[in-house]
Fold each of these.
Amino acid sequence: MDRIPILKLGDALLVTIQVDMHDRLATALEEDLTTKIVDFGAKGVLIDISALEIVDSFIGRMLDNIAAVSRILDADTVVVGMRPAVAITLVELGLSLSGVKTALNVERGMALIKSRLEEFDADDED
Amino acid sequence: MPTTRTDRLEIRSSDDVVKVRQQTRVLAVEAGLSLVDQTKIITAASELARNTLDYGGGGELRLEVVEDVGRRGLRLTFEDRGPGIADIQQAMKDGFTSGSGLGLGLGGAKRLSNEFSIQSKPGAGTKITIGRWKA
């Protein structure tokens, strides 16, 4: 079965979605990600959707689920690279992705995760 | 209204939903829709194809590039012989679902379209038509 590769990037995991998602692939990704968050002790998950031409409620729900599960496992999820036409469409569809953080690109998403890690380290020193 | 191209697709599996998106894109480009309009009708098609599969038990999609006096666009008709919808008004509301979805499919598809019509009767299946016109 096809699987979406998950790369380790410092304290974070990077997932680049490049194929048209179908149900089994989405379920497999959710499972693989949660396993890797625990295995690597990852503090963040970056999901790059710049290759996605549409995000429907199915993909939206997948992103929300991943963010919710990651949060419970103490990792932040940042969705990056959303195309402008996709953003316009999502809002009209009625999906606000309220549980998901977003950033314009991978670099900014990584910065968001790092800033949270620095806060975390500062708390440790107190 | 003259139709310049008509395609048909079966919706029987999750892979067919992917095919619906791909074919809708091909015809949306052919109809001359802008990138945002293409994205809107493909997203609406994806929602309705999934509804056809999940709630209608599968069905068929007819895709038509239509041309009328002064307007050109894409019309999609989803038809299934599933259980039908008893209360269409309720089904159109955001958040209403009889399954495990988010309940955005019907209302969302309507908002993403310039034209929307639904015919359904309990036991007689559901037929939904959407259209998006070139601005």
Amino acid sequence: MYTRLRGLIAPLIFLLIASFGMAQRDIVVGADSNGEHYDPQRGLSGSAHIMMAMFDSLTRLDPAGNLQPSLAESWELIDNHTWRFKIREGVTFHNGEELNAEVVKLNIDRLVTPHQTRASVGSSVTGAAVVDAYTIDIFTVDVDPLLPSKATNFLIGAPSLVQDPDNDSTAFNKHPIGTGPFKFVKDVPGEYIRLEPYADHWNGAPAATSLTFRIIPDRSVQLAELISGGVDFIENVTPELIDLVNSSGRAHVVISDSTISHTIPFRLDVESPLQDVRVRQAINYAVDLDSIIANVLSGYATPIATVVLPGVLGYNPEVTRYEYNPAKARELLAEAGYADGVTIEFDFSPAIGELYNTEVIQAIARQLSEAGIKLNLNSLEYGIAIQRVYGDRTVNPAFRWQWKIWYNDPDSILYGFYSIGGSAAFVGDQEIQDMLHKARYNMDNAERAQIYSDLQVKFREQALQLPLYNLKYIYGVSDRLEWEPRVDGRLYFGQTTFVD
Amino acid sequence: MIPYVARRLLMVFPTLVGVMLIVFFLTFTIGNPAVLLVPAEAEPADIARVEAALGLDQPIPVQFAKYLGRIVRLDFGTSFYSDGPAMQLVLSRLPATLQLSLAAAVIAVMIGVPAGLFGALWRGRAADMFLSASVLFGMSIPNFWLGLVLIIFFGVQLKLLPISGMGTIKHLVLPSITLATGMLASIARLIRNDLLDVLGADFIRTAQAKGVGRAAVFVRHALKNSLSPVITLVGLQLGALLGGAIVTESVFAWPGVGRFILQSIERRDYPVVQAATFVLAVIFILTNLVIDVICARLDPRIVYD
């Protein structure tokens, strides 16, 4: 009798443990806001983490930021206006439709439709032509060495949703269909979006049984949810809370490098004392960045001498920071005719610069004032700051900024700010313009690297910026998860595994 | 009374037109949405194309005429971000806000009114002092702080209640208490002070003189008279709450209108901002109308003119 009972109970216990284990394979992410849209042709911003779970792109970046094949297996330059991509065979969409060159063409056609240019991820792309069932040519305006890198943003949507290039985002927002590792289940705006694994994903199905992005706008509340087990993952843990997370018994922090350059660019195209190179150099001499990083940022940042970071094409290790030398700063100011001090108008937004941004600016202002440079701080709302830089270009001569470097290439951060006629061009130096142009339309990587390397020397001599630092990402991750950070800061859960 | 209500309802239209005019011109002062819609590396030509696609490149009088043409048909256009109809997006958030505001209002009235009565009846005693101190505390405590303290205590330490989000009745407890606190304190104070005024009035003495029992004087004469300011207060506060308790909604990740409006303003999503303002204006105007009618029913001194 007892043996019989034991025979019954044992499988029951096994089942219980098994089902418990199953339920433990859900991943809940605490997110700041819900996706803005789920339309692959409208760019990734805002919804990037969710989009990357549902869609694959032609190429992808690995966690270190290096270019890898994805839906395209290989690519080559055919002529100065044509890149040829070989499309992976046997890939299916979540609704069963198949991927081929024709489907990629439909997506590219939709990308270049005038009303879709909101995304402008493909601003150099003019169109595409099918070569055979799994080969496609993508055409560009000029030679574009970065097209395979930019293709990391060419997300591919299901043919039934992209067939009509004039379709707006409505169909995708209702039910996005891609080839990604997770498929769409439900979206409740302002609450959550739930995804489940796609068993037939070409790169293998994810280990998770579900992936939910829960919208929790307040970061302290995200942390409370993490340490009490309500969510498995959050971004942006502040340094003083690292111990709290690590001692919670539920989660730990993962610290990773980023590709974000924090800096203070100067405008030379409006009348201000900053038009004098000696004043710009004085500012560089007057800031003791090491002390700011140690005291304000608890050491979770690396000082930079140039906005081109180590590991990025053309990084020049010989370019160094100006040393901290307030006496030299005063001397330069006096030479420039500001022996009695100088006042600089300065714009910043608490939303640009992330960790303790306002405190860092206050510390910089204080150090500068000791050298006779007074910063007049103007705090701006995020949208206004963007508007003043990219829109009506009314930003003050010095302002706080940050740049994310994509695909380990400096073109995207330098061209817009330093080419003449760029969206936020405030310097107007013809020589810099020529160098940037030469690097942008050039297939020789060694030559490009040399140009960017030379540019950094010029930037330092001219003191066109006060380069600040590169911040670390600090994530809070459930102890159940083995999750790998990426230098581009995007969250990817397709390869996340569980600690059993 | 019916002509009065009809007249008031007619007044809704000019008020709404005024609101929508102000909103239209204010949206232009908060900046150009096109620069926020394009990625950082976009070039000026990209921004210009987006402006053209959104119709923002047209002269302001033309945009204004189109805007007027749309709102008279209650068409607020589509969200710049999701392409969804702006009005529908706003209305989809309304139930969450209604649930939270009504729960908060009920808590505030259920506790605030008895607390005020208590204070008036035991005026000057220790209990009244304690009440006054609590009221001061309740009125001055910031919502975001109270919300976080409640979360840490009931959610993280005691694990009694969910920390954030919407779903079960348990999810409603902490946010509605947080939201109710300020309103509760105002109600308690108002009703206490008002009752004290009324209790000293001539008609109360008259009622007592003609031999009406103490309880009857209190309930039928005093309380009834001091209710109308409370109803006005609750009405105004409810109107404000329905506009979205932005802070409370953000702290508790409550998917209401307030948070949505804030997000839309940050993104410069004009159609959503305009639709939301319209909905809120209508709610506010109607709440006021209902309150005025109720007060007039309660207080014969108010005449419909």
